From TrEMBL:
Keyword Transmembrane found: yes
Family: Belongs to the EamA transporter family.
Major subcellular site: membrane
Bilayer-crossing regions: 12-33, 39-57, 69-89, 95-116, 123-141, 153-170, 182-207, 213-232, 244-263, 269-290
Membrane topology field: Multi-pass membrane protein
InterPro entries per record: EamA_dom, EmrE-like
Subcellular location: Endomembrane system
Keyword set, alphabetical order: Membrane, Transmembrane, Transmembrane helix
PANTHER family: ACYL-MALONYL CONDENSING ENZYME-RELATED (PTHR22911), EAMA DOMAIN-CONTAINING PROTEIN (PTHR22911:SF76)
Protein name: Drug/metabolite transporter (DMT)-like permease
Native organism: Paenibacillus forsythiae
Domain EamA: start-end pairs: 12-140, 152-286
Length: 315
């Protein structure tokens, strides 16, 4: 795991990303455009915002190997699949249910990180994850599977969660070899192209949408994508993929509060209690992760100190 420190404390950056990404479901619910169109313009507009700042990374782009480009393509396809499935799920089920299921992402990330990168999590940290997931279950328990539409939305969200977990695991491998900004830009462009091909093949209109829809496409690009996904990709340089994915556990809480205020979706006492458990479990996980990173840093410093003193003693 990388133990570099970012210029801004990780918990503050994570909170910013959680708030931003919580607006995603609200904007999607407000839109009547197909999910594939929302996803295409969300990623296209984000890419256009990023392109003017890509020049410092031109050298890194030219150094990418064929294997890197294949991994970028795979990551972009998984991101497009995630948006298509998860955004589509909101047409059939509530914000609480869909975001609750997507919050199970750390389970897939933890398994994948262990298999691919041999990353281990402390038992106490896993306990925090369990508490947070229990809270997420309470949030969405009230309306999961109440009808065939609810069930369809739940299944779409599950498969979308698997897709974004694969996307994050590929990203963890790539950001150690290339700037996270460049990684995000290329992945967004590839995912937008995948959506364009999908819409073209399905005969879905590209431009026949009212001004309000274009405003929503723009908000989706700026708020949850720039201040959510890009920020989380950038954080992969400083912490594990499992820790980054834990941020998703905060999304159901923020999304449910916003859905209550902006969409009139009512929450039961059980769901509010679940939100408290999510935040508590997330805070405990991050605390234990920080303690583990601090111990690892001290051990590394001790080994480096011993390595420096050995030549001195030998002389």
């Amino acid at each position: 795991m990388n133990t570099k420190k970012p210029p801004i404390p990780v918990p503050l950056l994570m909170l910013t990303g959680i708030v931003a990404i919580s607006f995603s479901a609200i904007f999607i619910k407000w839109s009547s455009a197909p999910a594939s169109v929302q996803g295409m313009y969300r990623l296209l507009f984000t890419s256009l915002l990023m392109v003017p700042f890509v020049r410092p990374y031109s050298g890194a782009a030219s150094a990418l190997s064929l294997k890197d480009w294949l991994l970028l393509t795979a990551s972009g396809c998984m991101l497009a699949l995630h948006f298509l499935l998860w955004m589509g799920s909101l047409e059939y089920t509530s914000v609480a249910s869909s975001t609750m299921i997507m919050a199970l992402e750390p389970v897939f990330i933890m398994i994948g990180s262990y298999i691919l990168y041999k990353e281990r999590s402390a038992a106490a940290a896993i306990a925090g994850l369990g508490v947070a997931i229990a809270g997420v279950v309470l949030i969405g328990w009230g309306d999961i599977g109440l009808s065939s539409d609810n069930l369809k939305g739940d299944l779409l969200s599950i498969f979308g969660t698997v897709a974004v977990a694969v996307h994050l695991l590929i990203g963890k491998k790539l950001v150690v070899r290339m700037p996270s900004y460049l990684y995000s830009l290329f992945v967004f462009i590839i995912a937008a192209a995948v959506f364009a091909l999908y819409n073209l093949a399905a005969g879905i209109a590209f431009f026949d949408y009212p001004p309000g829809e274009w405003g929503i496409f723009t908000l989706l690009a700026i708020v949850p994508t720039v201040f959510g996904h890009i920020l989380f990709n950038w954080l992969l340089q400083y912490t594990s993929a499992t820790t980054v994915s834990m941020n998703i556990l905060g999304e159901p809480v923020g999304a449910c509060i916003l859905a209550y205020l902006l969409l009139g979706e009512r929450l039961s006492g059980q769901q509010w209690f679940g939100g408290v458990l999510v935040l508590g479990g997330l805070a405990f996980y991050l605390y234990m992760g920080a303690r583990s990173a601090a111990r690892e840093a001290r051990r590394r410093d001790s080994r480096e100190q011993e390595a420096r003193t050995l030549p001195e003693n030998a002389s």
